[in-house]
Amino acid sequence: MQNPIAIALLILAAAVIVGVVVLRRLRQRQVANIARRAPAPAIDRSEDAAPSSEADTDIPYWTEATEEVATLCLKHAFSVARFDYQIFDDHERVLGLVDKAIEDAAEHQQYFPRRPLLLPKLLQALNDTDSTRQELVRLILEDPTLAGTALKRVNNTFYRMSVQPVESLDRAVVVLGTDGLRSLLSAAILQPVFRLPKGFFDRFAEMTWEQAQRSAAGAQAYAAAVHEQDPFVAQLLGVMRSLATLVLFRLTLDKYKSFPNVLPRPEVFIRVLQTHRNRLAADIGRTWQLSSASIDALEAQCREISPTRMSPLGRAVYYGELSSSIAVATHHSLYSPEGGKAILIHQGLTPQFAAEVLLAAQTADVSS
User: CA-CA distance, 311 to 313, in Å (whole number)?
Assistant: First the structure.
């Protein structure tokens, strides 16, 4: 017969073991519940973080702040205090004509005045990171206007190395360097089209050219910071949206010719820009036979996806355009620089890179 005391001790030991197991499982469940209720970790905004957040949480393409600076730029370009008026009658018919014509607008050469004859060669040189200085010089020599622009740029305060002006193109090439020449070509590709007939919204062309140059500089600065894309390809894409802006302006002005007794209204042009600008920029890129990576970067703007889900080149276009709007607004005292930097940080840039991209946009050469 077994000892009753021994049996009681075995039962007690088993009860203790079972109790420990149950308590451990309850503790594990409690920890899991606390973890589920805990807030998600904050996005790293330190100075050493990447230029753009790679967090799982999407950053919206548009916010109230980004829309505000874009609106301020449009108001300033068209010299209006507001543009939220209802569009009706002949003005609404103009919108309809633009909508019908937009599909093949990128193919209509009349909206691209004085398109450079060297465009295909220039685009190839800009997209080729192995382009030599000699090749770029040869392209410049084929166009006297480009040669004159090179001499003008090399004699500005940024490049000037002595009190004596540079009068030799060979010397200008040495001073500018390969990077300087590629930057010059990128701007020269589109500069001739930033000309509009006088009479309607005379500030518009100047403002659009300014925004193009600032956008190109911001996109270039971002691409240089991430070391994943050619900064000069980003620079070229940075001006595409502004080019689309001018094409849409010319297209809309052309459609107003069907109503000779109707005075063009700024809200019609602004509605056209807000509706079609990104799409037309991508269409122009395809017409110019840009690379698939460049087209994808422009398409990302059409879809208005989160910048965290864009390619590095797509983010360069996005932050270039955003920094451009901020730089234009701050330059014309429409917005505070501190507020502009805060927008870039909120949209995914670290403080360090927000400052660098914004500075590039703010200090861009906007002379035409």
Answer: 5
Q: Determine the Cα–Cα distance for residues 167 and 185; give it in Å rounded to an integer.
A: 19
Q: At what angle do helices 312-331 and 231-238 cross, to 10 degrees?
A: 50
Q: Which domains does the chain have, with CATH numbers?
A: 43-113+200-368 (1.10.3210), 117-194 (no CATH)
Candidates 117, 119, 96; CA nearest to 251 is 96
Nearest to 80 by CA among 201, 197, 195: 201
Residue among 53, 310, 357 at smallest CA distance from 216: 357
Of the candidates 290, 368, 312, 307, the one whose C-alpha atom is nearest the C-alpha of residue 343 is 307
Please check the confidence at residue 275 and state whether its pLDDT lies above 90.
yes
Q: What is the C-alpha separation between 331 and 146, in angstroms, rounded? A: 28
CA atoms within 13 A on the CB side of 58: 10
Q: Letter for the amino acid at 358?
A: L
Question: Tens digits of per-residue pLDDT, 179-216?
Answer: 777 777 766 665 655 555 566 788 898 898 899 889 99
Amino acid at 363: T
Token digits of residue 63: 């916010």
The closest of 240, 220, 214, 183 to 312, measured between CA atoms, is 220
- Would you tell me how many other CB atoms lie within 10 Å of the CB of residue 10? 11
Q: How far apart are CA 123 and CA 234, in angstroms?
A: 12
Q: Which of 226, 251, 368, 242 is nearest to 311 (CA)?
A: 226
CA angle 340, 236, 281 (to 5 degrees): 85
SS3 52: strand
- Rounded mean pLDDT, 81-95: 95
Calculate the alpha carbon distances from 266 to 79, 86, 323, 345 in Å. Answer: 9, 12, 24, 32
Q: Using a cut of 0.85, tell me whether the model's pTM lies above it.
A: no
The pair phi, psi for residue 349, each rounded to 5°, is: -85, 150
The single residue listed with the structure tokens 């965290």 is 308
Residues 299 and 282: beta-carbon distance below 8 Å: yes
Radius of gyration of the chain (CA): 29
